[in-house]
Design brief:
This protein is mainly alpha-helical. Among the domains are: 1-139; 637-763, no CATH class. It is 64% helix and 4% strand. It is built from 39 helices and six strands. It has a six-stranded mixed β-sheet with strand order 2-1-3-4-5-6. The longest helix has 19 residues, at 658-676. One of its GO terms (molecular function) is zinc ion binding.
Length: 769
């Protein structure tokens, strides 16, 4: 009988046995009884010593060292040496033993293809051979399901499972989320008496926890014999963390401390994961302090867990400090800091850190590319985005699915739809996320027809449609105000059971954008358990379609069933009141805000200013806002010219081309007045100043400066794209319509409410925005 392998699932008390005595004269290399590698402390020393004493035991030991160090290249050299010195095709227990050792080494080094190739080439297999391959697949999240297939094949071959088989297969059940298979294995483990092994019980606890059955996990934990065993506690704590039950995980940690069980490295990682997800940096610092106090030093995976905890808790200074103190760093260490910078919005630091990583001994991988490309997209930094794309191509990472999806998102956020489309078309494999990202990119960049065409292609090729994709298609319908296609999408949502509350609210919004209030009302009435967003969507629909009285009536209906209000609904209803010039009603709402204890912030205060039409009332509100330290957000507009983003505020003269911009703006005004009879509408200037001063204020609005600069800096016939942080005023809306007509330009403006497509003197919003 061949010696058992030291598998990752074997309990710590299980020792590697020596192989049985060899048959004489089989192979001279296998006759050396002395195992001189036992005393070699490192893989490098063992590898050098190996050539002086090649034997069965030395082969076994060096292969175990290669496996533990995950040194695939040296393991492959040993394999070649074995084949050269002692072919493995002889059918004896020694060749089976060595083949199994090689299979185990390949599995531990992550080379599943080579491990399976070894397995397929073996004419004889022991339980240890099966366990080695089942364990290898169980340790690979993406391939874990193969473990369960192999387990079934093993049973059919007549080989009976042992405790290690159950431990590995149960791990695969947990990773794959296959509770049914896990229950079946639990029954077989009881029948075979394997639940007497502590590590099998631990595997069962982990499986149930990862499958969301914490009740079963907890009963096994309570019934365990060795309650002082730290491995048992780690299993239940880790299981709770991995299934999202972080509060329970921390509660168990406190109970473990009360029971006097000392934590180890795995406890630390499980607790820090829970602290990270719950954003509890103080408890994380407590664990950190305990590690420092122990004086034993930090394992790399402990330091990585600390970096992740601090980063997710938005404590980047602490995260970087831990990172810098690490003697050894792997890609997880670098990527954790990189991801932390992105999540905290420090996009420039993320790009800078990425460059530092390139110059280190750890080169960026696909996870690094995804993080920093996301940072470039969120910040609109096209230059760094292109650089990252080039690096991904150089490292042959651009064809990976998640990298491709992130690059598409990055380019669309940087308003380079054509580049995103190129990435999309070059992808060898596309999933639902790829299509959703591309459709969303089209819709967000006003390429509404392209978004709808892409969705038609999705239906043709049979890609799975989800609510995210439908949401992007609805945005395209809104931009085109395309009622027929909107009705088709609405019907599609009913047919495929995609009409959840979020999409139901979106349907109301889009029907409102298309001017179809009756359809919006029907959609509103069909939604059960209406939330604040649903009511807000219907009220906004009324306001945008000029039905201010209906909006006000619905608001009072809403007050009967909804007690909690947010800023969005309040600003919406104040807009309706302002349009109706109902100062008395406005004061009622203002009083309601005060009675309910709402904070009058800059946005709400701005809406109140817009509502009060009498100057003494305006000045009153402005004074109160000033007394409370509240400021209405200043209007700001952005335009990209020459691959550079330019920003403008009202009456801005800080731009280096300010002189040319105002000269161009004066020329525009002269043409509008002469050819279109344009006169500024000063009712949109809510300041108690002279009419002449009001006209000057209109003349210097931020979007007008951006338009003038766009006409100077772009060639004739090219679209002008502008983003504004606040709603475009009525006079600027009319101004932009006339500019699009006189200068024959498509002007796309994204304000706080929606996209506006100005072309030939008309706007896609139809006068409602």
């Amino acid at each position: 009988m061949a010696a058992p392998l030291h598998l990752p699932c074997i309990h710590p008390s299980t020792h590697l046995q020596r192989p049985t005595i060899l048959t004489p004269n089989k192979n001279p290399l296998l006759q050396t009884p002395q195992n001189t590698l036992k005393s070699t402390p490192t893989l490098q020393h063992a590898f050098l010593s190996f050539h002086h004493h090649p034997s069965l035991q030395s082969y076994s030991t060096i292969l175990e060292l290669c496996a533990s160090h995950k040194s695939l290249s040296q393991g492959q050299q040993i394999h070649a040496h074995i084949l050269k010195s002692s072919p493995l095709h002889d059918i004896d227990e020694n060749s089976v033993f060595l083949s199994t050792k090689l299979l185990f080494m390949y599995g531990k080094c992550g080379s599943l293809h080579d491990a399976h190739k070894m397995f397929d080439g073996m004419s004889q297999r022991t339980i240890f051979t099966w366990n080695a391959l089942i364990g290898a697949y169980a340790s690979n999240a993406e391939e874990s399901w193969r473990s369960l297939e192999l387990y079934s094949e093993m049973r059919l071959s007549g080989t009976h499972p042992d405790a290690c088989t159950f431990a590995s297969a149960l791990k695969a059940c947990g990773v794959h989320g296959d509770l049914g298979f896990g229950l079946e294995m639990h029954g077989l483990a009881i029948k075979g008496g394997y639940v007497s092994f502590d590590f099998v019980v631990n595997s069962l606890i982990a499986m149930y926890a990862r499958c969301g059955e914490l009740g079963c996990a907890w009963r096994l934990f309570k019934g365990a014999r060795e309650r002082e065993d730290v491995v048992l506690w780690n299993t239940i704590i880790s299981g709770c963390s991995q299934s999202g039950r972080y509060i329970e995980a921390l509660g168990l940690f406190r109970e473990m401390q009360s029971a006097g069980v000392r934590m180890n490295s795995y406890t630390v990682v499980g607790v820090l994961q829970a602290c990270a997800e719950l954003s509890l940096p103080m408890l994380g610092r407590e664990v950190h302090a305990a590690l420092v106090k122990s004086g034993r030093g930090f394992e790399m995976f402990e330091s990585n867990a600390l970096v992740v905890m601090y980063a997710k808790s938005n404590r980047m200074v602490n995260a970087v400090r831990v990172f810098e103190d690490m003697e050894e760093k792997d890609n997880v260490s670098w990527n954790s800091v990189l991801s932390g910078y992105v999540q905290s919005g420090s996009h420039a630091k993320a790009v800078e850190f990425f460059h530092r990583m390139i110059g280190s001994d750890r080169k960026p991988d696909s996870v690094s590319i995804i993080s920093v490309a996301s940072a470039s997209g969120r910040s609109g930094n096209l230059l760094s985005g292109r650089e990252i794309h080039a690096y991904a191509i150089k490292r042959e990472l651009d064809f990976e699915l998640e990298v491709g999806n992130t690059l598409i998102d990055m380019y669309t956020k940087c308003k380079r739809v054509a580049h995103a489309k190129q990435v999309f078309q070059r992808m060898p494999i596309r999933d639902s996320i790829s299509w959703t990202t591309m459709i969303a990119g089209y819709a967000q960049n006003s390429c509404y027809c392209d978004a709808i065409d892409a969705f038609r292609e999705v239906q043709r090729v049979g890609v799975k449609v989800d609510s995210m994709m439908i949401g992007s298609v609805l945005l395209a319908c809104s931009g085109l105000t395309c009622l027929p296609y909107l009705k088709q999408i609405h019907a599609y949502m009913f047919k495929h059971s995609l009409l959840d509350r979020v999409l139901g609210n979106s349907i109301i919004d889009v029907y409102g954008d298309c001017g179809e209030v009756e359809y919006a009302i029907r959609a509103f009435e069909n939604i059960e358990n209406k939330d604040i967003v649903c009511w807000t969507s219907m009220i906004s629909c009324y306001v945008h379609n000029g039905l201010q009285k209906e909006a006000l009536e619905l608001f009072y209906d809403m007050k009967q069933v909804i007690t909690e209000f947010d800023e969005v609904i309040l600003v919406t209803i104040l807009t309706a009141i302002a349009n109706l010039s109902l100062l008395k009603k406005g004061k009622e709402i203002h009083g309601f805000l005060i009675r309910k204890g709402f904070t009058i912030d800059g946005t709400t205060g701005g809406a109140l200013v817009d509502m009060y039409s009498r100057w003494e009332e305006v000045e009153n509100v402005r004074l109160k806002m000033k007394e409370r330290g509240l400021v209405k957000n200043p209007a700001c507009s952005w335009i990209e010219v020459g691959n550079k983003l330019h920003s403008f505020v009202a009456r801005d003269r800080s731009h280096p081309n300010s002189k040319e911009i105002y000269m161009k703006l004066n020329q525009i005004m002269e043409r509008l007045e002469k050819e279109e009879g344009y006169v500024g509408d000063t009712k949109f200037v809510l300041h108690n100043v002279s009419e002449e001063e009001k006209l000057k204020m209109l003349h210097g609005h931020s979007e007008r400066l951006a338009i003038a600069f766009g006409l100077i800096g772009t060639s004739e016939g090219t679209p002008i794209r502008i983003t504004k942080n606040l709603r475009v005023c009525g006079d600027c809306h009319r101004f932009t319509q006339l500019v699009s007509k006189l200068f024959e330009r498509v002007i796309i403006v994204r304000d706080a409410n929606r996209f506006h497509h100005f072309k030939g003197g008309s706007c896609s919003c139809g006068g409602f925005w």
